[in-house]
Amino acid sequence: MxxxxxxxxxxxxxxxxxxxxxxxxxxxxxxxIGLEIISKGAMxxxxxxxxxxxxxxxxxxxxxxxxxxxxxxxxxxxxxLVKNFRINGSTDIWKLNSLKG
Amino acid sequence: xxxxxxxxxxIPLLSAIIIPFAARNRPRLADLLANATLVAGxxxxxxxxxxxxVISGGFADIPGDGLSLLLVATVYLVxxxxxxxxxxxxxxxxxxxxxxxxxxxxxxxxxxxxxxTSDFFTLYVFVEVLAVTSFALITTDESAGxxxxxxxxxxxxxxxxxxxxxxxxxxxxTLGSLSYENLHIFMSSDIPSGPITFGVALxxxxxxxxxxxxxxHTWTPDAYxxxxxxxxxxxAGIVTKISGVYAIIRIATLMRxxxxxxxxxxxxxxxxxxxxxxxxxxxxxxxxxxKRMLAFSSISQLGYIVLAAGLGTPLAIMGAIxxxxxxxxxxxxxxxxxxxxxxxxxxxxxxxxxGLEHSMPWTSWTSIVALLSTAGVPPLSGxxxxxxxxxxxxxxxxKVYAILALLFSIVTLAYFMMMQKKVFFGKKTPASENxxxxxxxxxxPAVLMSALIVALGLLFPYFFSYVRxxxxxxxx
Lengths: 101, 476
Description:
The structure holds two protein chains of two kinds.
Chain A: H1 3-24, H2 28-52, H3 56-88
Helix pairs in contact in A: 1-2, 2-3
Chain B: H1 7-22, H2 27-50, H3 52-56, H4 67-89, H5 97-116, H6 120-138, H7 144-174, H8 180-188, H9 194-211, H10 219-226, H11 229-254, H12 263-285, H13 290-311, H14 314-345, H15 356-359, H16 361-375, H17 381-395, H18 399-423, H19 440-458, H20 460-475
Helix pairs in contact in B: 1-2, 1-5, 2-4, 2-5, 4-5, 4-11, 4-14, 4-19, 5-6, 5-11, 6-7, 6-11, 7-9, 7-10, 9-11, 10-11, 10-13, 11-13, 11-14, 12-13, 12-18, 13-14, 13-17, 14-16, 14-17, 14-19, 14-20, 16-18, 16-19, 17-18, 17-19
């Protein structure tokens, strides 16, 4: 087994860990952590692709931009979680059911 | 990046930075700055595209590929309608007026970035910027519904971005570059395209989730219903269309779906489009809340665009682009009217409303124009785009899809007629007893858009020559 396929096994493992984390927990905070794990797995794919094609400089540039964007998105998401906790008083995802039709 | 249109990204960004400082203690200045920026952009675009010399030359000397110009104009138009509406809709005491306009302008800049970019990574960057501004815009009024809608949007777009990143990685390995140009050249050659199609399929899945096509549509009605009223017009009219559907159309043209090199992908996309049309229309039939019904109708109309993009022939792409534009016009009218109704009578529950026809004649009539255009009734613009899509389907031998698309167009008419009957016709209910017509500035955007719907329907031959030029440039 070469390094490349090992990379992608690990990435798959990471992504499935993230999805399990999202499925198994009811708390929004934990689900956000699960999402973070998934997106870290996705970023590793870019690094692995850069290493395979001998183009790590390009991959590095992409990854740094992605990390910056990730930080902004997660900050916005955390703000939503905090606001939700202030309004509803709980972090349970199953209680978010006021909009139905 | 299309450098000719760069200023349409930078000027709204600059304005978004200036507004919080210049208008800190003067809320009216914030209205003025935001509207002035967008009006200036629209005037500039009109000069670029509608000069008599350009029209008589068959739109030959338009910068870029024409599609970007058309969509930038759509973005500016919808954003102008929404900011103009908000200037009178947002209550005086609202603390974050400046932030609201700032966010709208940043999202205008991000949408122009999405439209004018020419590589997948920049596309991803701008789509994420757009998503962040949308979360903040949905929660403008800090209501429980807004937070819930925004959270659901957040939890579904985040995995979609991860899929897009994975698709980018696969493209890096297989294609070695992320630019549209290289993908297009590769797909025009005869080399087997298996792994590249896989990478593009991953990205396509991400964009399908972001645009809310049916199996992944669950966030759409919640986000539109919970959002602050003018923001839901903005989201439904343009934001989710640009962040998802535009990318789908772009990928469909780049992958050259019409010459059958990525047939499985094209087939799946068409199936999802048809499913969206059906599920959206059938779910809209049984909604009780006006905004939620409009959201399901939006999903159904989105299905037509995805169906046409999945087919990918020049005629279908023409139909998809034209329907994208039409969707922006009629959905903005309907959502702005629902915001007017909410302001006037205090509710959007269709069972509580009734008989608003006499007290709100303008709102009622603009709604009728918009809903007839959505359902595809002949003289209006929606008819032409649906006709193009159905003709393209019929020409390619997909008769079942063509007939189903036609039938669900009738279902569209049915649920809109039910909406119109419940809300505007019939007897007055207690909730709509004291609901006067909203003021003229609040009606102006809806009237403008309705005039545009009628004008485009009647002047279709001119517009058709533009859309044909666009389709020829982006496909060949």
